[in-house]
Amino acid sequence: MNNYLSNFLSKLSKKVTINAQQEDEANEENEANNKEDEANEEEDQPKIENVQQEAEEDLVDPIDILREKCKETNKKCKNLVEKLESCTKRVTSRTNTTETCVEEMADLVHAVDMCVSKDLFKKLK
């Protein structure tokens, strides 16, 4: 019985050793593959960023152009821009004030949006 048990244990230890070696080899292979994948990802990252930057540089939102045009050419918008600027100067010149220029800003934004809405959808594709 003692002989049988020692024989069994020696076979079992050989299998455990072989399995451990196979696992080590598999782990090393996986680590090597992961390092290669990381290197490839790092190489691809700048390419993707460059493409995104180029695409962002080429895109210009037509509403921004129309807003600036309205502020410069529309009589009502020009007057509201002047009112906002004078309010801003008045508020920033004072040290202790509760006045804000929210109303002037809201009026300007509304007027610019009304002006832009006339031409915006002609520009969109």
From TrEMBL:
Coiled coil: none
Domain named Ubiquinol-cytochrome C reductase hinge: residues: 61-125
Keyword Translocase attributed: no
Acidic residues: bias regions: 22-31
Keyword field: Disulfide bond, Electron transport, Membrane, Mitochondrion, Mitochondrion inner membrane, Respiratory chain, Transport
Main location: mitochondrion
Region (Disordered): 18-57
Family: Belongs to the UQCRH/QCR6 family.
Name of the featured protein: Ubiquinol-cytochrome C reductase hinge domain-containing protein
Species lineage: Eukaryota, Metazoa, Ecdysozoa, Arthropoda, Hexapoda
